[in-house]
Amino acid sequence: MARLHHDYCPLCASTVISAQMEVKDHSITKEVFELWRCASCDFLFTQDPPVPEEAGAYYQGEEYISHSDNQEGVVNKLYHKARDFMLGQKFKLVDRLARGKHLLDYGTGTGYFTDFMVRKGYSAEGIEIDENARRYGAEKFGISVHAPEALFTGFADNTFDVITLWHVLEHLYNPKSYLEKFYDVLSPEGVLVIAVPNHESKDATSFGPDWAAYDVPRHLWHFSPATMKMMVGLAGFRVSETHHMPLDPFYVSIMSQKYASGGGLISGGLKGLRSFATSFSDAERGSSVIYVCVKK
């Protein structure tokens, strides 16, 4: 399999990069990948992931549930219950921020959020790389879901009032180019809402290489608040607000405990509770952080 090797930092282009830790792909292949860190800007990234053309194999598995409706087993049930709760939370945030009703959800998966926003009165469209997920969303909900190339060829500048990426940016092979395009198609008063895992969170520190949100090699980039602000800044955005995702510490900690010891729903939940308490008082210490970005 062809690999993508980075000879310099993908964020700041420094050549002072080195291996930080080894992380296992617990979900599908059980392969081990290295995370490398930049000494100049502290950016953390997956070294030698598959090239984009061969990445699909790492998304095809029963254990990988973010693009499926499989609700068998405790973890799947928890995931989907959390998703249903978070639909309302996401709507409340977006509706407070939005200055208009035209929304693009990039990486919409099976379309639940896009459909929810349509039912709330928004003109919402989705973009999704997975053809099966696109078909599912279109057939189940009747929503408009585009292939990824639509972002670069299908929309005029200043088209959208809101663009959302819920745990998507960490999957994109050239995030800078996407952010620059989001800048173009977003209206002058529009908002870009990005949620990504935070490798500086309490649960990440607690679980180390077994932290589920490393999710190699599907997660190519591993953000801290500082490196996220730097990346969006290079595309012309500034972060105006940050928020935590309240259920992420529990789900991530339960999955991490499973990876670390093969079980431990209660112990994982307790660690998630401690991480939640930390993020409740400081969103930027959360297991996942929502960044509200506006044009500079």
TrEMBL record:
Q: Which UniProt keywords apply?
A: Methyltransferase, Transferase
Matches recorded under CDD domains: AdoMet_MTases
SUPFAM superfamilies (alphabetical): S-adenosyl-L-methionine-dependent methyltransferases
Q: Which GO terms describe its biological process?
A: methylation
Q: Which domain of life is it from?
A: Bacteria
Record GO terms (molecular function): methyltransferase activity
Q: Which PANTHER family did the record assign? A: METHYLTRANSFERASE TYPE 11, TRANS-ACONITATE 2-METHYLTRANSFERASE-RELATED
Q: What is this protein called?
A: Methyltransferase domain-containing protein
The organism that produces this protein has a lineage beginning with: Bacteria, Pseudomonadati, Bacteroidota, Saprospiria, Saprospirales
